Amino acid sequence: MPKQFYITTPIYYVNDRPHIGHAYCTIVADVIARAHRLMGEEVFFLTGLDEHGQKVQQAAQAKGVTPQQFCDEMAPHWEQLWPKLLISNNDLIRTTQPRHKHVVQTILQKLYDAGEIYASEYEGWYSTRAEQFLTEKEMGPDGKFPAEYGEVTRLKEKNYFFKMSKYQDWLIAHIRDNPGFVHPDYRRNEILGFLQKPLGDLCISRPATRLAWGIPLPFDADYVTYVWFDALTNYVTAAGYGTPAFEQNWPADIHLIGKEILLFHAGYWPIMLKAAGIPLPKQIAAHGWWTRDGQKMSKSVGNVVDPVAIVEAWGADALRYYLLRELPVGSDGDWADTNFERRYNGELANDLGNLVNRSLSMINRYCKGILPQPAVPDPLDDELRALAAATAKRFPDRVAKLELNQLLGDIWDFIRRCNQYVDQCAPWALAKDPAKAARLGTVLYNLAESCRVISILLAPFIPTTAAKIRLQLGLGEAPIVLIEAQLWGMLVSNRPLGEIAPLFPKKQ
Ligand code: MSP
Predict the structure, then answer these.
(1) Averaged pLDDT, 204-212
(2) CA distance 233 to 275
(3) Better-predicted residue by pLDDT, 499 or 210
(4) Which of 95, 120, 288, 476 is the most exposed place for a label (fewest CB within 10 A)?
(5) Mean pLDDT across the stretch 224-250?
């Protein structure tokens, strides 16, 4: 079996309510996954939920339920969101699943046996109220900790540490030698800059008396695994670590993440894998953060963009299109309703919607809904055809470089060229002259072919619309492949079109 293309999203904190930022990351991953499937690859697309930790423990306590019950109540918010956004994930991991606990403990034991983990005393300022150690960051200018932390005392605590620092030079060399390892380039530079300071060893445990809601350390049941060893390991758990499937899935091709967790993914994670003798992922791709109208989104300000509300009002395709078109993978984005509406009306309804609608309506009107034959060529047709082929040919490279907004830009250049072709050829004028019937048929055939090519290229981005275009063209629902976008003339003439309807109803 050939290796699958394996792409992951971060595992989201189960206690959060999903918002547009989480939706963004998962949609970008979905577009990449669908694009690779379109290119004929087997794809394994993973998303998931991060379910351990103090916040979950506290929230469960406050509700009077067990942490597991609390997770089970929260998980459906996430599980039910993904189909609404047309996410085609192959798996959804929850860190409370037995498969995950088993893999985390196996890897920890392996590292412990290899001498990569050691116990040490940690001493610091501890807030009993917040149940956490405080650092100088939390300290006020007066040298005191804010009142919300309650009584703060010096505390000595034994914990387990992972020998991360000894791998620092190796990691720097790996990132230097593999330019594609961190995407985009400026994030690679950021991580290299960060690695100029000593990394230190990583504290990987918490005493179970203080944090019960975690995976117990296999070599000391008085402790649980703390945050990153648990969370990051999800990527190998879901790939089937320890089973024959692992070979087929691992290494991950892309860990798509938000920029704020870059250090954990491009720093800690490769070192953990290296120490455990597991191959490294091929790429860590960090995307930017969305704000709304220039402001950070937060529940207290009440400016959070709810992806479900957008889907209900505008449809999932419109949301997917906007998020992907608005910015390159890596840059920060700012959500503004007016901008969203402008793109919907201008690009989806006008450019794309009108092209398909007027092309197919003219076939209805002038050819009784039967696709005509191309018979009378013109240099204008060759130019259209060449642009279609060039756009389709560029697709794999754009996807490989994660240039998804540029890819949409290429496709829209073609869509606009098609609209221009309609105006240049003026089928309505050709229709008035019976001597030009064959030319009219050719123009309309070329337009239908263009819509077919567009439906393939857009399928990863706006799958529902792509399928609608194909049905309107009289094509079935069979799976499509990118190669078919590179070929011209695949539509069979003298066959009826499907039923025509506007793709994006205009909104005021
Ligand atoms: N559980 C950790 C990740 C562990 S991965 C092994 C976590 N979870 S999270 O729920 O906070 O989700 C983080 C991810 O959500 C970010 O990395 C990013 O992909 C996405 N976003 C959350 N808010 C965002 C924005 N405002 N804008 C864009 N994406 C952001 O961290």
Answers:
(1) 93
(2) 13
(3) 499
(4) 476
(5) 96
| Position 139 confidence tier, pLDDT thresholds 50, 70, 90 | confident
Residue of 373, 354, 430, 96 whose CA lies nearest to 237: 96
Decide: 85 and 318 in contact? Cβ < 8 Å. no
| pLDDT value of residue 49 | 98
Q: DSSP letters along 287-353, please?
A: E--EEETTB---TTTT----HHHHHHHH-HHHHHHHHHHHS-BTB-EEE-HHHHHHHIIIIIIIIII
Instruction: State residue 508's pLDDT score.
Output: 62
**What DSSP character marks residue 251?**
S
Tell the residue nearest (CA) to atom 5 of ligand 1.
Answer: 10
Pocket perturbation via mutation, ligand 1, pick of 7, 9, 11, 12 by most ligand atoms within 8 A of CB: 12
Which atom in ligand 1 lies closest to the alpha carbon of residue 234? 6
299: confidence class by pLDDT, cuts 50, 70, 90: confident
Superfamily the domain 337-486 falls into: Isoleucyl-tRNA Synthetase; Domain 1 (1.10.730.10)
What's the order of all strands across the beta sheet hosting 132-134?
132-134, 117-127, 152-162, 202-203
Q: Measured in angstroms, how far is the CA atom of residue 100 from the centroid of ligand 1?
A: 20
CA of 485 to the centre of ligand 1 (A): 35
Query: In Å, what is the CA distance from 469 to each residue of 106, 119, 499?
Result: 50, 62, 10
The fold adopted by the segment(s) 5-287 is: Rossmann fold (3.40.50)
List the domain boundaries for the chain. Answer: 5-287, 337-486
Mean pLDDT in residue range 182-207: 96
Ligand 1 contacts CB of residue 145 (under 6 A)? no
* Alpha carbon of 258 to ligand 1 centroid (Å): 6
What is the pLDDT, as a whole number, of residue 31?
A: 99
What is the structure's pLDDT at 300? 85
Q: Is the pTM of this model over 0.85?
A: yes
Pocket test for ligand 1, best of 7, 22, 232 (most atoms within 8 A of CB): 22
Distance 18 CA to ligand 1 centre (A): 10
Give pLDDT, residue 507. Answer: 77
Please give the number of the atom of ligand 1 that sits closest to the Cα of 291: 26
